[in-house]
Design goal:
Strands 18, 19, 20, 21, 22, 28, 31, 32 and 33 form a nine-stranded antiparallel sheet that branches. The chain is 9% helix and 39% strand. With 490 residues, the protein is mainly β. It folds into three domains: 58-153, Immunoglobulin-like (Sandwich); 162-389, no CATH class; 416-488, Roll (SH3 type barrels). Strand 16 (267-273) and strand 17 (280-282) form a beta hairpin. The protein has helices at 3-19, 31-42, 148-153, 158-162, 326-331, and strands at 58-61, 66-71, 80-89, 99-103, 107-112, 116-126, 133-134, 141-144, 173-174, 200-206, 211-217, 223-225, 229-230, 234-240, 249-255, 267-273, 280-282, 288-289, 295-301, 308-313, 318-323, 339-343, 346-350, 356-361, 371-378, 381-384, 388-389, 416-418, 425-429, 438-443, 447-456, 462-473, 476-485.
């Protein structure tokens, strides 16, 4: 075949092959290319979140603390904000480790009971889990619980200049020799076990772990090595014969008076001396255990409703609805909170009447409600007494003393109820349950004033704390307070 014929044939074949394609003139795309194009068309590009602009904090005085409120602009498209908060006491040079919080509103509230400095930075976020996106961090905004200019101008006595609670934090040795420590005098010439000999407390600390260990050295040679607690805790040692064996039990507590929320922290250990070995060992208490020596309750919470939150302390058979207000819920409460450990922040041996340990706990962080209960020694073990609204009058030097009156007279009742028992009378008891002692019997139609709190016993029955006007003598009212089953009143 001639070369020209071959070339002509090849051209015809090529033209025919090209003509067998899509008649519209569009080439058939690779399936993978089609899929990639579809994905690209579905992808919606979103603008990056802008950086919040945070204003310096504004000081405000509340019932329990001095607050510092920070605000920033709303960021378009943000679901919430992450806040990094740092704090330091006014005499400290550097800020402490930051604490992270998430808020839904464009403000954040810090607070303390003493002269503290705060600084925060904020970043916006949207989305959840692995898909969460963040903006860059804002610049720092600062605020203080005190007026710096006035603080510098104030004349401070020589005694005040020479004492500080913070001198203890890095100190090692006998606490009664820690010169300048605010509570140094509390550890001089002490006799905790009651044998007439001088007892001392020694302190060692671990700067890397930020923990401290206290050793109680008795004048008779006995010794208690207390488990470690945070080095920012302040020690308190007490002795008292709680079990009636003639030998003092030793109560060791750490309070965190200078914390930004001192009522959320506390450590406590109770030690008993074994007659056979002559050595002290820690007593197991009927409380939940937290970190280090923290002991308290696991409290359950309902979701906020109408600016109120109901909580339950099941180990003590107690529940209460607390009106906290909209500002507290938006500023401090996390709606996902359903259960939280709250530690005893203060405990004290009381020896008036039957010896007991009086314990204090706050069920909400940074809120005024304080509850108290007794740890009583009965039948070879310690038991939790009933809870009631109360706060200590001797908690540290940074807290306010209690404004509560020990007597009922002068308080305002929530409402009036009357005894309506099926058998004609009801028992007024010392606690919320039939296992508690009977104070007196009340006939039907006796008037009672409800005393602000209620509790639920182990069988699910609800009890009310009430006040009964027993008599009036020389214009002075004699009130009896106790607990009555709700089923016996109306």
């Amino acid at each position: 075949m001639k070369r020209t014929a071959i070339i002509a044939l090849l051209c015809t074949l090529v033209i025919g092959a090209l003509g067998c394609g899509n008649k519209g003139g569009n080439a058939v795309k690779n399936p993978e290319s089609v899929e990639e194009t579809a994905i690209e068309e579905k992808t919606v590009e979103t603008d990056p979140l802008s950086i919040p602009i945070v204003k310096d904090g504004v000081r405000d005085i509340s019932e329990d603390a001095i607050l510092v409120r920070f605000e920033w602009n709303q960021v378009n498209g943000a679901d919430g904000y992450e806040v990094s908060e740092e704090s330091k006491f006014c005499e400290e040079e550097t800020y402490r480790e930051p604490e992270l919080s998430e808020v839904s509103e464009n403000f954040f509230v810090s607070g303390a009971q003493d002269d503290f400095d705060f600084r925060i930075k904020v970043r916006a976020f949207r989305g959840t889990g692995d898909k969460r996106e963040y903006s860059d961090w804002s610049d720092y905004a600062t605020g203080s619980t005190y007026d710096k200019e006035n603080l510098e101008d104030d004349e401070v006595s020589e005694e005040d200049q020479d004492t500080s609670p913070f001198l203890l934090w890095e100190y090692e040795g006998y606490v009664d020799e820690c010169k300048g420590y605010t509570w140094q005098k509390d550890f001089i010439d002490c006799d905790y076990d009651g044998d007439g000999k001088k007892d001392r407390v020694n302190r060692s600390c671990d700067a890397e772990e930020q923990t401290a260990v206290y050793t109680v050295e008795f004048g008779n040679g006995d010794k208690i090595v207390v488990p470690k607690g945070w080095d920012t805790g302040f020690p308190h040692i007490q002795g008292g014969d709680l079990d009636g064996d003639g030998i003092n039990e030793i109560l060791v507590t750490l309070s965190y008076d200078t914390s930004t929320d001192p009522y959320s922290f506390g450590d406590m250990w109770l030690f008993d001396k074994d007659d056979s070995t002559g050595e002290y060992s820690e007593v197991k208490l009927p409380l939940a255990n937290g970190q280090n020596g923290a002991k308290g309750f696991n409290i359950e919470y309902d979701k906020p409703e109408n600016d109120k939150i109901r909580f339950y302390i099941k180990d003590a058979g107690y529940s209460k609805e607390e009106a906290v207000g909209e500002d507290y819920i938006s500023g401090w409460w996390t709606n996902e909170t359903t259960k939280e450990f709250r530690s005893v922040y203060w405990a004290k041996i009381r020896e008036d009447g039957s010896p007991t340990i009086r314990c204090y706990i706050k069920p909400f962080t940074r809120w005024s409600l304080s509850l108290a209960f007794n740890l009583n020694y009965k039948n070879g073990k310690y038991e939790i007494g009933y809870l009631e609204i109360d706060e200590p009058d001797d908690y540290g030097i940074y807290s306010e003393t209690s404004q509560e009156d020990d007597s009922y007279e002068g308080t305002i009742p929530e409402y009036i109820i009357y005894v309506k028992a099926p058998d004609g009378y009801a028992n007024l008891r010392t606690g919320p349950g039939t296992e508690y002692d009977i104070i007196c019997q009340l006939s039907n139609d006796e008037q009672l004033e409800v005393y602000r709190e209620d509790a639920t016993d182990k069988k699910g029955r609800r009890w009310l704390k009430v006040a009964y006007l027993k008599d009036v003598i020389d214009d002075k009212a004699e009130w009896i307070t106790g607990w009555i089953a709700e089923s016996q009143v109306e």
